[in-house]
Amino acid sequence: MAAPVKKREIQENVVKRDGDDEQESSGSEDDEQEQVGESGLEIQVDFEGRNPQDPDYHGIKTLLQQLFLKAHIDLGGLTDFIIAQNYIGSVVKQSEDFEGSDEEDVEDTFDVFGITTVINITDRQNLPCIQQLRDLLQELSSDHATDAAYTMIKNVLQNDSQPIGLLINERFINIPAQISIPLFENLISEMKRANSRNMPFNFSYYILICKLYKMEDKKIGTKTKNNKKNNSATPTIIWSNPEEEIFAEKALISFEFSVENESDSGLSGTWTETDDEMKPYRRVLLFEASTLQSIINTIKNQLS
């Protein structure tokens, strides 16, 4: 029997919806603020975090799809696994008492605005989706990591005495990073509670796959004596989830790879305010589990 749903109010956040160029003039309610900025309509929305449940299946799967893209992963099986362990992790939902929502205009797929959870990829290797995750990590590190980083990831994956947790931290791109703080804090509390019941959430390492974009300013460049443009400047990095940059600073090893040739999901959002080309990447981080709490504390201090 599934565990009872636990709801956790997160906070009031602003969701920015790009592409809304016009707004009809009307009176504003006290509990809802709307304003039109240069980048679109801003709506004040209440979110809550709660345990994943069966009705969240399509929303969670869609969010996983924007992370893994065309990787050979059974996302349906992975989604089922996340829902089955619904005593760990949270989905981000619009608060039920938000009066500005129109249920008829909200598709089921978009009911889930984010998912934050952890998966033990050491304990359940018999599951096809978990084995596929392990194979993917080893393949990606072989193709893109340094020799030292590849060796470390390979050794960690093969050492079953030091369990690895895959952190999943996905949400719509326009939802503010502050929402991650209560989600991570709750995740830590749930893992402690699960460990006290001898459940397999006592990890030695975590792996986090981050979404980022690299942008080269085409307007900036130097000319060589042969009148050729020098584009060797370091590109600007934009993190899809800004708090993950703090994870990257604490990582033991990391490597990245371009996903420019893979079709990204529309859920990842629309970037504006620049004419420069933004190329999508994934960065894989490996860090010690003992550092997770300090990372969350740093995120809380920097984003509060």
Automatic annotation (TrEMBL):
Residue numbers spanned by region Disordered: 1-38
Pfam families membership: BCCIP
GO cellular component: nucleus
Lineage top rank: taxon: Eukaryota
Matching InterPro entries: BCP1_family
Ranges of Basic and acidic residues composition bias in the record: 1-19
Ranges of Acidic residues composition bias in the record: 20-35
Family in the record: Belongs to the BCP1 family.
Protein name: Protein BCCIP homolog
Species of the source: Vespula pensylvanica
